[in-house]
Amino acid sequence: MRNVFKFFQIALLSLPLLAMRQDKPLRVIFFGDSITQAGVGPTGYITQVGEMLKTKGQAGQFELIGAGIGGNKVYDLYLRLEDDVLSKKPDVVFIYIGINDVWHKASSGTGTDLDKYVKFYEAIIRKLKAQNIRVILCTPTVIGERNDNSNQQDGDLNQYAKTIRDIAARNSLQLCDLRKYFADYLVQNNPENKEKGILTSDRVHLTEFGNKFLAEKMLDALLQK
Amino acid sequence: MRNVFKFFQIALLSLPLLAMRQDKPLRVIFFGDSITQAGVGPTGYITQVGEMLKTKGQAGQFELIGAGIGGNKVYDLYLRLEDDVLSKKPDVVFIYIGINDVWHKASSGTGTDLDKYVKFYEAIIRKLKAQNIRVILCTPTVIGERNDNSNQQDGDLNQYAKTIRDIAARNSLQLCDLRKYFADYLVQNNPENKEKGILTSDRVHLTEFGNKFLAEKMLDALLQK
Amino acid sequence: MRNVFKFFQIALLSLPLLAMRQDKPLRVIFFGDSITQAGVGPTGYITQVGEMLKTKGQAGQFELIGAGIGGNKVYDLYLRLEDDVLSKKPDVVFIYIGINDVWHKASSGTGTDLDKYVKFYEAIIRKLKAQNIRVILCTPTVIGERNDNSNQQDGDLNQYAKTIRDIAARNSLQLCDLRKYFADYLVQNNPENKEKGILTSDRVHLTEFGNKFLAEKMLDALLQK
Amino acid sequence: MRNVFKFFQIALLSLPLLAMRQDKPLRVIFFGDSITQAGVGPTGYITQVGEMLKTKGQAGQFELIGAGIGGNKVYDLYLRLEDDVLSKKPDVVFIYIGINDVWHKASSGTGTDLDKYVKFYEAIIRKLKAQNIRVILCTPTVIGERNDNSNQQDGDLNQYAKTIRDIAARNSLQLCDLRKYFADYLVQNNPENKEKGILTSDRVHLTEFGNKFLAEKMLDALLQK
């Protein structure tokens, strides 16, 4: 009898815990630019992460939220951090930003200097860490798919990617090294050294397959412990 | 008797108020870029505002603080707003930013798009107004002193200046229209249409006389009611 | 008798001259960029100059040739001067170049420095004058139709236009001051200070009306003596 | 007697020919930008090629001429080709241009689009080949000495270098692949991955050692048959 009581006691105590694990999925925000904005589309990478989780029977454990706005640079993320991320109380935030910071230097004269990029990037991290949010840093993917470092912005993208790797190391944060994954893939799978058409449709934005490729990497990072 | 008591009561209540008016000068922060950073130098414009106030016997009424950092654009001000301005509890803040936002487009590909400029500018204003701080908006001065709109960045500077005038009107804020003051002065006082050497030493940064000219305009704005 | 002989002598001498005036129309080449490339379209400015000449009954006196290529800057004109102009032995050449030299600074980082612009411009002029070709210099029109010098490139365009006026004066060449004509028109006819839609469809390329306006100015310059 | 006379006659006729072969060294022009302009300085690469030839006892066989002007891009070479190269009737011309074509995109918005770069490059080659001049094409060296393709302009420089290799192949011209030589050297000899200080003093312009390294490569190319 006593044991039975004890059992019930434990069961009762456990209920909220079980409930929490069942009812409250991990809230994951993908924070970025137009690639992330498109990520919630029918074939977008966030949608595909969701489908992959469904296949794994883990759909209920995660709530995926896209917070991408086209044309965004690192300082735009900083400006809308409160409204679009912190106010939503996420458990995990992917930061995937940098392509426009580099690209807009050439296309409109309004890119972001590397030192300022770092300043805003780290300011975002500080605010997320202050809320005990798990932060995953993504290196910028590509502007052009040539696999021999001959796309116009390759030098700059390599530099910004290295910097993000340093920031991750310095802050003991998880890294999702997208630029490396893309580069490795393109060395193997772009024999004609084309500028686009493999993972991107226009040198930057992802094809359905590119979204799938990205989704796999994001999912790996998310599930990694 | 009762009236006497009341009188004393009022007097006692007024004391701290009177004291405050005498003891606590108005704290004024000049928030900007390299021009403002140089403004606290021996002949800088902030120093000269201080000297002008001394001459007027009003030195004790104002505490002038320079918060300028070279190379700053509007988003840099936003990033350091808390640390360099709000934490100091100012009564008045001059915002004098925009030259690098325009200039860096051509010089390093890292200027600021006008729509982003407005977004950050208004975000700064909102945070200042939330603290009941009196805000004075300054239009950007010059990049080149030619007086016929033939300096490379004149079109862009005119556009950003117009936008600041609109922001001031929209938010019912005081405007210190430096670009107009400089333009009017140069029409009268640059007969050879030189690029520099009148108010600036290098097309942007101010000569001692340029600092004096600016100081007069800032002082007028500060004392204006 | 002596007088009769003299009369015949004059008549004989005049014959080739008359013949030349009747048989050989003045060959006019418009040498420029995309605006000139579009100039030979159904409503393009060169086509409209042709129609205006027809109305005046002077169509037979002029042969109009468009030599415009989209994206061209002054050095592109220099590169194709022999093939596209000199080899055609024109009598008159309009040089209408400069918009891309300014515009591409911001849009792709590949504009033309003013000093180089002058060098190539004058090199073109020298080669044309060496063939006794009548040269008419056109100032660049607009990038944006705002009438208060607040289009991004206005400062630069004003600078390049001034430089062309100087080149014309220095070389005693005819000037067709298109930028001034456009500016004057827009002050009168753009009360809402719109960026486009008056003379241009997209801030740069001309509407049918813009082409007509340009055609009138080109025709005036051509017929001016 | 007659034969003797004939012999002398032949000998006399041959003398100038022999003399010419001995007295008239191969005239070599180095055609380029500021690096080539500095190349004729006391420790410049052209000066060092001369000294290397002296050591080899071949100084008399070559006349080395520097034709470099700071800030030059490919179209500047085209503009001064007649005056600075063709008029001097060279036997060999090194074309070493491209750094400013890439660099000025970011530093002043006045770089050269790749397609235009090719057009002017090939126009120069055509004019040189029409005079039967031996042409040696040099790929652009570096803007920054990091050895992992993370200098800002590496992508663009790699692209322009590849293009020059293609032009050389297409036109069956000799290539002096400076960018490859520099890259290979820096992989071996820049263990700290520094931006400058190995072959360059400022990321672009050569140290004395950099000039020596370049001189060796130029000499190899010159003597190669």
What's the layout of helices and strands?
Four copies of one chain form a homotetramer.
Chain A: H1 2-23, E1 26-32, H2 34-37, H3 45-55, E2 62-68, H4 74-79, H5 81-84, E3 92-96, H6 99-107, H7 114-130, E4 134-138, H8 154-170, E5 174-176, H9 178-189, H10 208-223
Parallel strand pairs in A: 1-2, 1-3, 3-4, 4-5
The count of helical stretches of chain A stands at 10
Identify the biggest protein-protein contact and residues per side: A-B, 17 and 17 residues
Main β sheet profile of chain A? 5 strands, parallel
Whole-number radius of gyration of chain A? Answer: 20 Å
Order of helices and strands of chain A: HEHHEHHEHHEHEHH
Global structural class of chain A: alpha/beta
Structure write-up:
The structure is a homotetramer. Chain A has about 220 residues and is of the alpha/beta class. Chain A has a single domain, classed as Rossmann fold (3-Layer(aba) Sandwich). Helices cover about 50% and strands about 10% of the residues of chain A. Chain A contains ten helices and five strands. In chain A, strand 4 (about 135-140), helix 8 (about 155-170) and strand 5 (about 175) form a beta-alpha-beta unit. The longest helix of chain A has 22 residues, at about 1-25. Chain A is globular. Chain A starts with a helix and ends with a helix. The interface of A and B includes residues 75, 110, 111 and 120 of A.
